[in-house]
Write the structure tokens for this entry.
Amino acid sequence: MTALVIAEHDNASLKGSTLHTITAAAQCGGDVHVLIAGHNADAAVQAVAKTAGVTKVLVADGAQFADGLAENVAAQALALAAGYSHILAPATAFGKNILPRVAAKLDVAQISEITKVVSADTFERPFYAGNAIATVQSSDATKVITVRTTAFDLPADGGSAAVENVSAVAESGKSSFVSREIATSARPELTAAKVVVSGGRGLGSEESFKILEPLADKLGAAMGASRAAVDAGYVPNDWQVGQTGKVVAPDLYIAVGISGAIQHLAGMKDSKVIVAINKDAEAPIFSVADYGIVGDLFEVVPALVKELG
Ligand SMILES: Cc1cc2nc3c(=O)[nH]c(=O)nc-3n(C[C@H](O)[C@H](O)[C@H](O)COP(=O)(O)OP(=O)(O)OC[C@H]3O[C@@H](n4cnc5c(N)ncnc54)[C@H](O)[C@@H]3O)c2cc1C
């Protein structure tokens, strides 16, 4: 029994999502191999090779993998699939673009967003926006799985996996890379941050949302938002936390002017400590908060910043 993890990387570095996925793969019970389909991706290969629990790194190198086009990466995974009992990828935009193609071609049911490995064929996954957990058992020969990365710890360093070059599949010709706009921010990446400061409709405007910046600066936090704040144009789309946004589980999540709709809770309720600031004492966010401040955010946030020195 061997699991294949499809690595998410940008050639120069490995994404943390891959590491969490390796932990889930190891829990399936067999060896763990990792596929790096990339171009001149030595740095990513080395990062995987030294991850504890990985027994082999398979490297498919070619210009057709340089930009991670799903058609090419999925074809590469399919070329290797016969030797594997499990094929896993993170439940990120990357993995969600690749694994359904793999599952369809293998004619198996994808098991999406697992949060726990119960045994080699049985997994837990949330549904109804995280309000219920399904235990699913698969009788398919190959388990094709996306992994909710926040549910699995990072593996340790200290591995020394063998690195093996595999023959690269040809360019599919079905898609081509045009351009990429990369958002640059001095703040940590939202899904990897240890502290997240999130704002909601209660902030009132794009201008007022900036009141959260000094708080995020003091705490070295990433900034997030509710969908209402995103839809109102206060902040960019990729800040959205929730069912249809990003799922985060930082050590500390501060929700400011967010009511706590179930779709928002689905993206943050597994945070270790939740602080809510809201002027409505009945707001549902307080039902998941460890600490709550009932008050006007325009008074509470500056006072908090002052207190933090
Ligand atoms: C299919 C579907 C998917 C969805 N996906 C998501 C998702 O991924 N993420 C998400 O967030 N939502 C999502 N939603 C939307 C969700 O249902 C809520 O509408 C949204 O989360 C509300 O955002 P909010 O809490 O910022 O706004 P509101 O619900 O309007 O809450 C604003 C809060 O601010 C407080 N407030 C106002 N002024 C102040 C002040 N001065 N000081 C302190 N507090 C103040 C109010 O008391 C209120 O509680 C989804 C909805 C659907 C139907």
About this structure: The two ends are 54 Å apart (CA to CA). The pocket of flavin-adenine dinucleotide is lined by residues 200-202, 226-229, 240-245, 257-259, 261, 263-264, 267, 278-280, 283, 296-298 (CB under 6 Å).
